[in-house]
Amino acid sequence: MDIPEIIRDIDCTINTKVIYGGPIKPIYGNNIQISPQYKGRTETSHDKRNYLANLLPLETYSKIIVLFSSGKDCLGCVLHLLELGVPKDKIELWHHLIDKGSDKKMDHPVTLPYAKAFAKALGIRLRFSWREGGFWSEVFRLGSSAPVSFEDAGGITTVESKLWQRTIELKALMEQAELEDNLDMLETCFNELKQIGYRMKLPAKVSDLSTRFCSAYLKIMVGNVAIIHSEETKRDCKILMVSGERRGESHNRRVYNECEKHGTNAETRNNRTVHVWRPLIDWSLRDVWEKIKRFRINPNPLYRVGLNRVSCALCIFNGPSQWAGVKELYGSGEGSIFQQIVDAEKELGFTLDNKVDINTFIGDAVSCIDHSNLLALEQVMKGIFYPEDVFVPLGQDWEFPAGAFRGTEGGPC
Length: 413
What we know:
The protein is of the alpha/beta class. Helix content is 34%, strand content 11%. Helix 2 (72-83) crosses helix 9 and helix 5 runs antiparallel to helix 6. This is Phosphoadenosine phosphosulfate reductase family protein.
């Protein structure tokens, strides 16, 4: 593919020219096919298998699903769809819960309240999916990965891997063996569990999703399971998955295709068409903020306290200043979410950074937190955000948040 010239996030400022974020005309219902501005890649077998020259007309899809993290780019996707004329009842926001069923936490406390408030304020359906036990169940995995659960038409559906029940049986036998001091049984069970699956390490700071497993196991795979097993998307449907990746975020995302077939596409077997669209792929950071500004949306307050990205609080791509910010916001003593990383590094003998432990990595970095917006600080620290907070009131100026143009410090979301 011809890789376009892009404005990298690190080079983008409040004065960067708006190219794509301005007003657009609605096209929904006019039988218009959307074609990517730049032809997608077809070099590898994966590229060829998933290549898609253009999308179907938007009104052709049974539902349009926005992968919704609560960050600026997914906000931009939703607002872009609305401007294109897509009815709200055709859109769904899918949010993956990464702390569900775990006493330990990974996410910012305000992320989920913001997602709920945004969906309610705009009148768009919000659905949740999760891996039982969340992030930490996968970090300390011995045996099968935990089941995936999601909200379906009839309630909560849970899908177990084939070896999940055997994993439970073996762990129960290990507990009994410990009580009986039966070392042979303990070793036998442990070895079988290890053959089923063994993680016992933190995710790596790489693009390979097999070792950066947090994205793969807590988001991508969870979403795929939900599509394949949901009564609403299992068969006889046409689904458009919308996500907010942009070329300006990172070197890897620079070569993403704007549209392609999704991994769950099964037109022959289940009459299920699943396409992917990255409508903001060529947008600059300034374009995204312009769209949000025109709709007068208050973004996630994490941006207003100085963070440049809304990912997990304990994201592996946090830079030293973001980690210092996490410590400032949520504390660093016993029981804090930061201390979980410190303890995990010691227990696993595996550091989050590939060279040094987390405290050495942070060093004497200055916190990225901006204290000028007291309301945003309260929302972030208490984990509160209400539907009435979503829109900036008329008569009040919309302002760029403190973290709006802090480049790509910390890597892509």
